[in-house]
Design brief:
The protein contains 17 helices and 5 strands. With about 375 residues, it is α+β, with helices and mostly antiparallel strands. It has 2 domains: about 200 residues, no CATH class; about 140 residues, Trna Endonuclease, Chain: A, domain 1, CATH 3.40.1350.
């Protein structure tokens, strides 16, 4: 009588590894699906606007005001990522990457059949160099494309496409290589392979979790910034308690925003906590770093303070003030960033009305 084959057993460690593997695989698939959808959406929006400018039945009614009027209308419909600047970017994206039309499903090709047919025949400067649009969509996020379509030279753009795909570059790495003139350095280098090897060795590669944290992605998904932008569990926990602590002090703090997104040139930045102080009549920006004090932290906060000074102040407001909180294992450090204010009376008034440094330090140390 033959014995039945034994069921293969696996260890607890193998169980953990199996779950990790499944999670990694499906997280990558989800990130890729979201990025492809967002990228195609933005490309199609650009195509529709450009088409309307050329052939819209009532385009003369809007003229130069088209994008402004469209922005206002889309706000009414609560469509995210459709500010004036973004709509212009989508049109630039569409014009820089006409070959993406070959990846668009038939349901979105009804606007202008003649335009679609002409686009489907378009090739980049050299057919041999053209990157497969399917590959571009599956491997690059919209933030990658935004960096690429700002490059006017099609050959340079294609170079960075290939390098980005080959090295699986993150958006930050792509920007670093563009800023440090990798294309130009490669053209001048006598040993191009050696240069490429050095770049690849130091390059920061992309991971699904970083892709999902892309500001465009969570805005597209309707997520709140604080749901995905916390730098660490420690910072998230401290910010939760800090927010309650400041409101309980009763010094006039009115909570306004958490992880407030602001646009600095072409980069998004996030201010940890934003309050409006009803006594001082100014914004109070708070940055928390689960780290020891570094001088660049002050520079970062001062940049945010100056942004608020320029973009958020209204009639009757006093200049904004920033508070930097840095934590380490054994101490807490607090710095006030006053954006170089010369008026000592205002500085003293701020110091009188805002929580004392010792007060905040005691709170932070207790929480740590």
């Amino acid at each position: 009588m033959s014995s039945s084959p034994k069921t293969k057993q696996f260890t607890f460690d193998q169980l953990v590894q199996s779950i990790c593997s499944v999670n990694e695989t499906f997280s990558a698939q989800a990130a890729k699906a979201v990025n492809i959808s967002l990228t195609l959406r933005n490309w199609l929006i650009g195509m529709y606007i450009a088409e309307f400018e050329l052939r819209g039945a009532d385009r003369a009614k809007y003229g130069q005001r088209l994008v402004d009027e469209l922005t206002l209308k889309l706000v009414d419909y609560k469509i995210s990522g459709c500010g004036r600047r973004q709509l212009y970017n989508y049109m630039t994206f569409y014009r820089a990457y006409p070959q993406i039309v070959r990846t668009v499903s038939a349901q979105f090709k009804q606007l202008s059949l003649s335009t679609i047919k002409s686009l489907e025949k378009v090739r980049t400067p050299s057919a041999q160099l053209e990157t497969d649009p399917e590959k571009l969509l599956s491997c690059l996020s919209y933030s990658h494309f935004e960096m690429l379509f700002e490059t006017d030279d099609p050959l340079k753009r294609t170079f960075y496409e290939h390098e980005c795909l080959r090295g699986n570059w993150s958006v930050r790495e792509l920007k670093r290589q563009i800023v440090t003139l990798y294309f130009e350095r490669s053209g001048l280098s006598k040993n191009k392979k050696k240069l490429a090897a050095l770049v690849a060795e130091k390059a920061q590669t992309d991971k699904p979790e970083f892709t999902v944290r892309d500001p465009y992605v969570f805005e597209f998904l309707g997520l709140k910034p604080q749901e995905v932008m916390g730098e660490s569990h420690l910072e998230d926990a401290l910010l939760d308690r800090l927010q309650e602590f400041l409101l309980e002090l009763g010094h006039g703090f009115c909570f306004e925003a958490r992880q407030k997104r602001i646009l600095l040139d072409d980069e998004h930045a996030f201010v940890d906590l934003v309050f409006y102080h009803r006594i001082l009549k100014c914004h109070v920006l708070i940055e928390l770093k689960a780290d020891e004090f570094k001088h660049e932290h002050v520079g970062q906060l001062n940049t945010y303070v100056n942004w608020y000074w320029k973009n958020a102040m209204t009639t009757g407001d006093n200049p904004p003030v920033g508070i930097l909180l840095c934590t380490s294992k054994n101490h807490a450090k607090i710095e006030y960033a006053l954006a170089g204010m010369d008026n000592k009376l205002f500085v003293k008034k701020y110091q009188l009305e805002l929580p004392k440094k010792e007060e905040i330090q005691k709170f932070l140390e207790a929480q740590m």
